[in-house]
Design a protein that fits this description.
It contains 27 helices and 14 strands. Strands 2-1-3-4 form a 4-stranded mixed beta sheet. It has a 4-stranded mixed beta sheet with strand order 12-11-13-14, with helices on one face. The longest helix has 24 residues, at 196-219. It starts with 10 loop residues before the first helix and ends in a 12-residue tail after the last strand. Among the domains are: 5-219, Glutaredoxin; 376-466, no CATH class; 658-726. By secondary structure, the protein is an alpha+beta fold. Strand 7 (308-309) and strand 8 form a beta hairpin.
């Protein structure tokens, strides 16, 4: 039966209506309209209750004991909805945004709501980081209702996995989550009871339309006819975003600008780039480091770094950290130190590395994602009186100078305009011990002692007042591969052979733990592919780690594994118009979901594109279908270089990298110098039997192959050093 237009049930329209209703446009609570299990067919209790059990990762671990009968994202759960004639109630949460803990805690603490969910829906909890395609599609769904991406996202689905309606759950500060859910449920339940068949049909049509739109968008992406020139234009645009007067970086967003630091540090050291572009990159990099390294983004108590900020100032972080983001910062800071010589970047990088090893390393030497934890923002901030009670009067002046605290508070008005945190301080590495000593006119060693005593006392106090997060013992593939790259970079920059050993040994452990033949898992364990199968992004991180270890060890073994992984990517993730994020065995959405933008992290496309450049230079070309997609450069990167900084890196690497060719008889000192060269922009490979004579180095030498094809001999380590800028 054809419904009148005004009565038709559109997913987008309903989602918009939900949003308007649930943020307060409708004052009536609609308690009388709450439906308790009135759907088509008899309601059965969900077998086994909460079935998250031992599923790995902080999202599932945090809700394993919840009274809500959470199920996993799997075919079995969708079949359960089909057999019970229920809708699915899916909550997509991101462990990088731990606000989901408070929201789900409020839902599970109200027994009426718990009973309503358990008796009416098949509730499915989704880790949007591990099941990455659903984290990505959340952006698409939020855009459809005109909202910015926000987690957790509440999605009602049919048993076929087609969205019916969706809405971001606002944080508790904007109202009661219980009322929010109750009002949502009232609308959905009524419509489902009135005509479930129509809901199924219409959601199926909506999903088909969404699939068509997404695929067409993939096909309509405009790519550059001159990627080398346009990548340079994009880099120039990126450097223009920094305003030295206001010390702001337009378009940077709220995340720690790892991608920006990466592309600037690489460009400053890329000797084949035009000198003026290298100089601009170095200048902006210097300025960014001046802003970041003394900001509250770095925690002077434990050495970690925060992943994002509130508002436009680095002085007020969002107090959340995870292993993968920490590892990326380590690499970017080490590369920035090499480009600028700013020792503060080296100090912060090594501090973060120590923090990660102490916080996220498992007993077997791999790394966890990190426990989801949240707490009152005020517990991360300090007032003068708070610190005064903890440390001595002699220590107080040194700590105040070192951390940047002020008796009146140091949060700028623009980050706290309502003065919610009046007289509060965020703490930072505002000054070095030497600067503190000079300011207080005391001995430098004495200043260091006073600072360290203060740090230990304040850290102990914070640890006692903060809630203890649930212990995360499950090694995570992305975190482990990211830390392998961090170890390789630490060896390359510091020369400490212990990091070379850690990089090689950890990669061997990661391969054993996460690989099953040619395929990877994001976590080890026994669960459906829809939950544990590695998405394309994980393969990108693994290939990068393998190439990084190969570059610093020059053994040859890891190059072969990187090639094997790239073959799996070609088989599992290459479609006609795009790189799919989910392997076919794990895909329950049937949508053309790809990851071309840096929203959560580096993009999958960017990671794989950078690896393609390196593999090609090392003599491992990719299949043509995959190569074509990874070597194209979107023209949108010129106007949006921050979102595409990884693709800019890939294009520059492809056009301006140099390659060193060495032989088995090349002296160890030359090999060591090669191993310590930049990982991006400098390739090193063993001479191949198929190489022409001019690419075969003489005994005791290596060969340098320039981007323009020029060949020159390398006779000493000094021939390998990249010239410094004036």
């Amino acid at each position: 039966m054809q419904h009148p237009l005004q009565n038709r049930f559109f997913g987008v329209g309903l989602a918009v209506a939900f949003y308007c209703l649930l943020v307060g446009c409708e004052e009536q609570r609609m308690e009388e309209d709450t439906f308790h299990g009135q759907v088509n067919g008899e309601i059965q209790g969900i077998p086994g209750g909460n079935s998250l059990g031992d599923l790995p990762g902080p999202v599932y671990a945090s809700q394993a004991a919840s009274p809500i009968h959470w199920q996993s994202w799997s075919k079995a759960s969708l079949e359960m909805a089909h057999n019970s004639q229920r809708l699915v109630l899916a909550v997509i949460a991101m462990p990088q945004e731990p606000s989901f803990l408070e929201i789900l805690q409020e839902l599970s603490s109200d027994m009426t709501t718990v009973e309503l969910i358990n008796s009416t829906y098949v509730p499915i909890l989704i880790d949007g980081d591990a099941i990455r395609e659903l984290g990505i599609i959340s952006d698409e769904l939020c855009a459809e209702i005109g909202k910015d991406l926000q987690f957790p996202l509440l999605v009602w689905m049919t048993a076929e996995g087609n969205p019916v309606a969706w809405v971001p759950i606002p944080s508790k500060e904007y109202g009661s989550v219980i009322e929010f859910f109750g009002q949502s449920h009232a609308i959905i339940a009524r419509t489902w009871v009135e005509d479930a068949d129509y809901v199924r049909t219409n959601s199926r049509l909506d999903q088909a339309s969404r699939r068509t739109r997404m695929l067409q968008r993939q096909k309509d992406v405009k790519t550059s006819d001159a990627p080398t020139d346009d990548a340079q234009r994009a880099l120039r645009q990126l450097t223009s975003f920094y305003d030295p007067l206001s010390r702001t970086f337009d378009e940077a967003g709220g995340l720690f600008p790892v991608g920006v630091l990466d592309v600037l540090a690489m460009s400053a050291k890329m000797e084949s780039l035009p000198v003026d572009l290298r100089v601009r990159s170095l200048k902006v990099l210097d300025s960014l480091l001046d802003d970041l390294l003394v900001s509250a983004m770095f925690d002077p108590l434990d050495g970690g770094v925060y992943s994002a900020r509130r508002g436009m100032s680095w002085s007020f972080p969002i107090f959340h950290r995870d292993c993968s983001s920490q590892a990326r910062v380590i690499v970017s800071l080490l590369n920035a130190y090499e480009a600028t010589g700013d020792k503060r970047a080296l100090d912060r990088a090594m501090g973060v590395l120590g923090f990660v090893q102490g916080k996220y390393m498992t007993e077997d030497g791999l790394f966890t994602f990190g426990s989801a934890a949240t707490g009152d923002v005020s517990k991360w901030l300090w007032q003068y009186e708070d610190v005064e009670e903890l440390i001595s009067m002699e220590e107080m002046p040194a700590w105040m100078a070192y951390s940047g605290m002020k008796a009146s508070g140091n949060l700028p008005f623009e980050v706290d305009p309502l003065r919610v945190h009046l007289r509060a301080n965020s703490i930072a590495f505002a000054k070095s011990a030497e600067e503190v000593a000079e300011q207080l006119e005391i001995d430098s060693a004495r200043a260091s002692t006073l600072i360290e005593k203060s740090r230990l006392k304040i850290l102990d106090a914070r640890n006692r007042q903060m809630p203890l997060p649930q212990v995360d013992l499950q090694p995570n593939a992305v975190s482990s591969f990211r830390m392998i790259s961090a170890y390789a970079t630490a060896y390359r920059v510091t020369g400490q052979t212990s990091y070379l050993k850690l990089a090689s040994e950890t990669l061997a452990k990661a391969k054993q733990h996460f690989a099953e033949g040619p395929r990877l898992k994001v976590y080890s364990g026994d669960a459906p592919d829809s939950i544990l199968a590695a998405r394309a992004f994980v393969y990108g991180a693994a290939i990068q780690a393998a190439l990084d270890v190969e570059a610093v060890s020059l053994k040859g073994d890891w190059l072969l594994w990187a090639g094997d992984l790239s073959s799996t990517v070609a088989e599992e993730f290459t479609s006609k118009a795009y790189i799919r994020e989910s392997p076919r065995s794990a895909d329950l959405t049937r949508l053309p979901i790809s990851d071309p933008f840096m929203i959560f992290d580096e993009s999958t496309l960017g990671l794989l594109a950078m690896s393609e450049s390196r593999l090609e230079a090392l003599g491992i070309p990719l299949v043509s279908a995959l190569k074509e997609k990874l070597t194209s450069f979107p023209t949108s990167a010129i106007d949006n270089p921050v979102l595409h900084s990884d693709l800019i890196q890939a294009a520059l690497m492809r056009s301006f990298s140099i390659t060193y060719v060495y032989g088995k008889e090349t002296p160890e000192k030359l090999k060591e110098a090669l191993a310590k060269s930049p990982l991006k922009g400098v390739n090193r490979r063993l001479v191949l039997p198929s190489d022409p004579p001019h690419l075969v180095p003489k005994p005791g030498e290596a060969i340098r192959l320039a981007p323009n094809g020029a060949v020159s001999p390398v006779r000493s380590p000094s021939d390998i050093r990249v010239p410094s800028l004036p």
